[in-house]
Amino acid sequence: MEEHKIFIGQEFPDVKAFRNAIKEAAIAQHFELRVIKSDLIRYIAKCSIGDCPWRIRAVKISNSSKFTIRSLEPTHTCGCNAQNGHHQASIDWIERGLEAIYGSSEEGYCLLPSFCDQIKKSNPGTVAEVYTACADNQFQRLFVSYYASIYGFLNGCLPIVGLGGLQLKSKYLGTLLAATSFDADGGLFPLAFAVVDMDNDESWMWFLSELHKALEMITQSMPQFTFLSDGSKGIVDALNRKFPSSSHAVCMRHLTESIGKEFKNSRLVHLLWQAAYATSILTFKEKLAEIEDMSTEATK
After folding, report:
1. From the CB of residue 43, how many other CB atoms can be counted at a distance below 10 Å?
2. Span 126-164, pLDDT tens digits
3. Mean pLDDT across the stretch 19-46?
4. What Å distances lie between residue 128 and 19, 77, 137, 276, CA to CA?
5. Residue 17: CA atoms inside 13 Å, Cβ hemisphere, count?
6. Residue 284 and residue 288: Cα distance in Å, rounded?
7. Model confidence, pTM
8. What is the pLDDT of residues 119-131, one digit of tens each?
9. Which H or E element spans position 19?
10. pLDDT tens digits for 218-275?
11. Which has the minimum average pLDDT: 76-80, 164-168, 207-211?
12. What are the residue boundaries of the MULE transposase domain, all occurrences included (predicted)?
């Protein structure tokens, strides 16, 4: 709390530094500010609870960029009111707090090689590699498939692999690629993941090549799998190259979203699900015929 103490006569390099300091003091001391006036030459604020006497006034020092606290009533009679969240805790403040706790993104990327070494030591047979751009040694790609996951997949899971990508929201963005199977209870079983600079054809070709090598390490004969995806060309082309003997199917969620968006007909989507759940070829063909009656293009 001492580092967030404020007092009359205290000076700050500029108005931005003052605003940051008063914001952090309010957060640390658990009260909300109500700003009365704030511009480049003066700042006046009080405690947001109406009868609480806490109040502060700061001004710009003449012929200087510095800001100084001119008056301060430091007493709170409100009992402090920001116990469950704080309006002064902006996204910038939260990001700085997270960086102080977990380290910066740059530090995290630098730790990736040692992270990969450690997981390979703790789970021998694991594939964990960081790839960098040769010119400047900057991060390019990361691939991880734990030996326990590979072994469990080959020996205890359905021969089905779902493929998908997710845009990351971190400072340096990128895309998370994942290969996921299903265990005997139908639960999701993680097989491999990667972080790449972008979701494109080249990234999927590389990811599926790494996955093939990881599986090849512990099986003498590559089984035939069924891969599920959103049906994008990059994934289909990569599967044809890297897993030519396996089958490929389009995920129903992606297919129904695509059909619904393109044809704007909920009945078509309903029939599509009925066709997918059909337990005989005859029932499937009947539902497909109903779709054909509604839209030849949708049937294709």
Report:
1. 22
2. 999 999 876 677 888 999 999 999 999 999 999 999 999
3. 86
4. 45, 57, 18, 37
5. 12
6. 6
7. 0.66
8. 999 999 999 999 9
9. helix 15-28
10. 888 888 999 999 999 999 999 999 999 999 999 999 999 999 999 999 999 999 999 9
11. 76-80
12. 168-256
- List, edge to edge, every strand of the sheet that includes 67-73: 11-12, 67-73, 55-60, 42-47, 33-38
**What whole-number distance in Å separates Cα of residue 28 and Cα of residue 17?**
16
Residue 196: predicted pLDDT: 94
Three-state DSSP state, 131: strand
Residue 153 φ then ψ, to 5°: -65, -50
Q: Give helix then strand counts, H and E, for the chain.
A: 10, 12
| pLDDT for position 287 | 94
189 contacts 182 by C-beta, under 8 angstroms: yes
CB 69 within 8 A of CB 9: yes
With a CB cutoff of 8 Å and minimum separation 6, the contacts of 55 are: 44, 45, 46, 47, 71, 72, 73
User: What residues pair up with 247 in beta bridges, in sequence order?
Assistant: 226
Q: Where are the domains of the chain?
A: 10-89, 113-250, 255-294
Is the backbone of residue 208 left (phi > 0), alpha (psi -120 to 50) or beta?
Answer: alpha
Structure tokens that stand for 252 in this block: 């129903």
Q: What six digits make up the tokens of 135?
A: 């010119």
Q: Are 196 and 205 in contact (CB under 8 A)?
A: no
% pLDDT > 90, the chain: 60
Residue indicated by tokens 């093939």: 212
| 46: amino acid identity, one letter | K
Q: Between helices 91-102 and 15-28, what is the axis angle to 10°?
A: 70
CATH second-level architecture of 113-250? 2-Layer Sandwich (3.30)
**Tokens 């619904």 sit on residue:** 260
Report the C-alpha gap between 59 and 260 in whole angstroms.
Answer: 60
